[in-house]
Amino acid sequence: PISSEGERRRRGEQLEVWTGAQGRRAIMASATPMSGGGSAPEVKNEPKDGAQVKVEPSGIQKLIQEKAAAQAQTSYKQPARRRGNVVRPSQLTGTLDALKSRIEVDKYDVEAWETLLGQLKPPSGAGRQADIRGRASSDTLRQVYGDFLEVFPTSSAGWRGILELESSEGEQQRVNEGFGQSLLRIKSLDLWRVYIKHVRATNRSDTPDGSNAIKQAYEFTLDHLGTDINSGPLWMEYLFFLQNSNAGVLFGESAAGNEESAKLVAIRRAFQRAVTIPTHSLEALWREYDKFENGVNRQLAKQIINDLQGQYSTSRTIYRELKKKWEGIKGGALATPPGKSHGQYKQQKLWISLIAFERSNPLKLEKESLGVRVELVYNQCLLCLYHFPEIWYEYATWHASAGDKERASEVFKRATEALPSCTILSFAAADFEAAQDKIEEAKKIYEDLLVRVADLEPQTQGQIWIQYMRFLRRTEGASSSRKLFLRARKSEGHSHHIYSTSALLEWQNGKDMKVAKNIFELGLKSFLKETEYVLDYAGFLVSQGDISNARILYERALTVAQGEGARTIWNEFLKFEYQCGDLQSTLALEKRRKEALEELDDVDPDELLKRPGYSIGLLLLRYSVNGMLPCSEKTLGHLQAVKVDEAFYGLPKLASEPESPRTEQPREVIKTEGGQPSNTLPSALSNLLDKLPPRNRLNGPLPSAAEVDSVLQVISSLDFKLLREEEGIPSGGGGASKRKREGVREDRVRDVYRMRQMERARRGR
User: Fold this and answer.
1) Helix axes 138-151, 110-120, angle to 10 degrees
2) Which residues contact 210 (CB under 8 A, 6 or more apart)?
3) Between 20 and 30 A from 44 (CA), which of 73, 225, 643, 739?
4) What are the pLDDT digits (tens) for 511-564?
5) Residue 495 buriedness (CB in 10 A; 0-12 / 13-18 / 19+)
6) Shortest CA distance to 133 belongs to which of 154, 161, 159, 157?
7) What does each C-alpha distance from 231 to 95, 188, 220, 370, 635 come to in angstroms?
8) Which residues of 528-559 are buried (b: 16+ CB within 10 A; e: fewer)?
9) C-alpha distances in Å from residue 557, one per residue of 530, 553, 569, 601
10) How far out from the chain centre does Cα 374 lie?
11) Is the Cα dihedral 571, 577, 583, 588 positive or negative?
12) What confidence tens digit (pLDDT) does each residue in 365-377 have?
């Protein structure tokens, strides 16, 4: 089980990061935004999902400029080496320039970024001096990492690189700020190991303060990542630290003479946590624990080990299943928008399967401990699927269903920051806050959207105004909704949807027909040419029984409509007359529509009359009611075959496509063995064909006439009498009992292929 102290640090408002010998160096809030202050890289809002944005990575530009300047001072006899090949400075500069160009075209070019960062990595050995790292300034490298983290804010490799750079430069303040921005958002063992390494490097283990700082850094890390399947080495490292620590220094706060006892309890507690977590090092940890207990007290060891054996066995069983779930998952993959990299959706399926497995609680944990495991796997999933809104929403709703409303609100906030152009998450976040009676917080979400509404797509802009109006109508009433409508009218580039939405809200909630109609008429001043708006208004008038004004509206729209919009208005006008007009007005409108379409399509009237389905298509529309057609399915199949498809009316698809008229191919004449043509089939085949169902009763693909003729030719050429004799079957019958007496096997296969082979063998003799 997770210790209460560790759980407090995980869920508390403030989490303490131990980074100095004097104790607390920085206080990090659990909701610290990724784009924090200081001089560390600022993670800015992402652009629209899927959009390729041309960026100017200034850090890369500086790097290229510095490399170009270094060429003049670099001797030709001092080349950088890569895998035994000489790389000249000019070649290296050209490579960086090519990488910059690729990133400008597509900032999510993962290969270009990885190649660049691979050349920026510090050398692992003294004999390999990095050609870029050795000559590029710290400010330039810092800017390059900043550019990278703007694009990939969840990359543990990027954060690890910038933190190692700041640490090597002795910038402790920047290191602390970087950890504060990244640790609680990026649950990656690689990054958190850098944190532990930093704490150990800045604290002396032979002093009480330093030793406790290291111990609490380990505990802080294990509280967050101790349930990771790869956390086994981290547990080993922590246990090694405890076992080799000076009890008097590390546990000096205990009562005098109890330091060793306190150390023993701490080691046992750590072991007992570690051996109940499914990790790759589970069996090794169990062996070490067994060795530890037997080294302390062999008599008590057996009882203690037996008490924990059941939990260990369960963890070992679950580990096998968990290992299979992790197979194929690329935990270190850079997060790109959907469709940007190969295999993303396969990775999504693997992550979803892993999350579902963890949520099923195979270890039968308590609610609190289960929450730690599930939250970790969600966080690790989002490091790779950062741009997938469905993962964010599922993560937030999981917290809400678990009763942790505050954490759900935090996840929604992170989701809207991660995907600012995905307004559906913002709408869901506002509804979630409103459901908690936090109306002001919900309004703030909408207002934040309106601040940057001009940067979004036109359709999305309209959605924001519409959803906000509906929200205010539900929560604050008509007055607030009307005030927002006035703001929307004055906004630049507003669409006609805000008029139709506001009008319908007035009618549906207040039954105020006059106000609704006035809003629609107000919108006509700007959007009479918008076909969709005209149809919305016409539908509203018809629903209120205002037939005369609806007819006038259609006539007004036809005076300004053009192209496809005019065609749609004519079609809907005719449908309206079929439902609401009399026969004379309907016939007159059909004639007007025909003349208008002839002019619109520039079609000769005589040519139009040659189309077989033009007129009858109107009849189908005239007499259809709620999708029910005035003809049988057989007639419908015929009309479909002759391509009756009036300009605005599509026939429904049948279960089986009707037979199209086609030219019959002459059948191949079946010949007898003597070469004479035979116009009649054998009586047996004729009887067989008579028993087969009609062709129009069959579903699925049908054989061609040539294929049928080929089979019939093979069958008709067989000598059945001879075949029966060779099989040992008398021609006079005798039944199954006689064949059985003569030793003839009844299960012998008699297919067409075998018959043909036997016939060829007979002719060969």
Assistant:
1) 150
2) 21, 203, 204
3) 225
4) 888 999 999 999 999 999 999 999 999 999 999 999 999 999 999 999 998 888
5) buried
6) 161
7) 38, 10, 13, 17, 70
8) bebbebbbbbbebbbeeebeeebbebbeebbe
9) 9, 6, 7, 19
10) 19
11) negative
12) 999 999 999 999 9
User: Nearest CA to 452 among 478, 477, 423?
Assistant: 423
Query: Do the strands 85-87 and 14-20 form a parallel or antiparallel pair, or are they unpaired?
Result: unpaired
Question: Which residue carries 């899927």 as its tokens?
Answer: 50
Give yes or no for a contact between 282 and 316, defined as CB atoms under 8 angstroms apart: yes
| Rounded distance between C-alpha atoms, residue 71 and residue 88, angstroms | 9
Q: What interhelical angle do 497-510 and 458-475 show, nearest 10?
A: 20
The C-alpha atoms of residue 67 and residue 89 are separated, in whole angstroms, by 7
The per-residue pLDDT for range 130-161, each reduced to its tens digit, is 444 444 578 878 888 999 999 999 999 999 99
CA distances from 76 to 65, 72, 90, 588 (A): 19, 10, 10, 90
The Cα–Cα gap between 329 and 319 comes to: 16
- Residue given tokens 């018959």 in the structure block: 755
CA 124 to chain CA centroid, Å, is 38
336-362 b/e (C-beta count within 10 Å ≥ 16 → b): bbeebbeebeebbebbeebbebbbeeb
3-state secondary structure of 14: strand
Residue in the structure block whose two tokens are 């059941």: 310
* Cβ atoms < 10 Å from Cβ of 369: 17
